[in-house]
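User: My collaborator and I are trying to settle a disagreement about how two of our proteins should look. Neither of us wants to argue from intuition anymore, so we agreed to look at predicted structures for both before our next call. Could you fold the first one, then the second, and keep them clearly separated?

Assistant: That sounds like a sensible way to settle it. I'll keep them separate. The first protein:
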Amino acid sequence: MSFFKKITGGASKVFKKATGDLDVGLRKIGNTAGTIGGYVNRATPYLSMIDPELGAGASQLSQGLQQGRSIIKDSRGVVKQVKSGDISGAIQKAKDMSSQQPSTSFY
């Protein structure tokens, strides 16, 4: 085996390991955000009974968490494209993601 094949083979293994760990981490964060957002969404009516402003804040928090989960899902798509070798597709998807404006305002 030539020297360059050894180097590229090792680099390829490191790259696959790093992107695999990134995908798992993003999946776990996205699932957690979705779960917490669901709980907050279910609690919103009760919080609104206590204080309408508290309910409105909880509703915005829930929307923000769900939007974050969606962004993480899109990010995982970019990682999968990079892993498959579709670099130009991953760049285009990342550009599309960057042009999206958040729909939830916390101000």
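The second protein, kept apart from the first:
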Amino acid sequence: MKVVSIINYKGGVGKTTITANLGTELACRGYRVLLIDADPQCSLTFSFFNSDQWNLFEEKELTLKTFFTSLIKPIANSKSFNDVTVNPSKINKKIQEQGGKGSLHLIASHLDLINIDMRLAGILAGGIDRHEQASRYFNCFSSISQGLEKLKSQYDFVLIDCPPNFNIVTKTSIAASNYILIPSRPDHLSTLGISYLKKSVREFVEEYNFYTKQANIPVIDPEIIGVVFTMVKVHAERPINAHQRFMDNVVKEQKIKIFDAFIRENQTTFSTASENAIPVVLSSASPPNIVQELKELVDEFECLIN
């Protein structure tokens, strides 16, 4: 099972679009995929379910919030990831109709994850000795990792849609991940935070490994596999010069791999897909060139991590 966190400090860069379509196309190719929506905005969740369905998840406590709440305040029947995983049956049916052999499941997000993050911070606070501090640190930041440990035989890929920040929930996602994928628009603001994200990841990994070594627990070493550019304006099937310049600069300045595949700008296609809760790669109404670009992205993704 390979775990991938999909993150950028800048919101509105197509992070959720990449997660939804990458996961769906992997399922079409025969993989068993679990998507985790760790963003309180719930955008990934609403890429597959409508608001009435989400209200039912909330009522039945089938969200990521429930998993974290069980960690913060242990109860007799604490919830595992298995307990809060939901099946987007409409999507899986379409995958099968198109000849796909895999499956797709989701752990839905919750608006209250913002407060969960504050409560997790409380677990780490307090005047405690060094041993207890290391124990609390590990129990907090390894929570997603420990939850996924029980799912190793059930999934080939876990894709985590992270919020556009580096809070505790994001860090628990990074700690659980083998790889990190960075979606970005080819503009100044979207690419500006990439170096800072690299620095934040490096510092967190060093800090995490400092504590885990004290407890004789395996260290983490998530690999940034690259930047995929989204919302690219295209002329004659190539990025316009202004966008190409930012794409080239990331290679030179950040020394991060840039995916050859990129996703062109088409607000109508992607907004319609979100409204209909059907990812672009599955919709018969999607423009063939955009579907092809998404499939090329998945081709490259498979080559990089297999």
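Some points you might bring to the call about the second protein. Residues 93 and 103 are 9 Å apart (CA to CA). The chain has one domain: 2-305.
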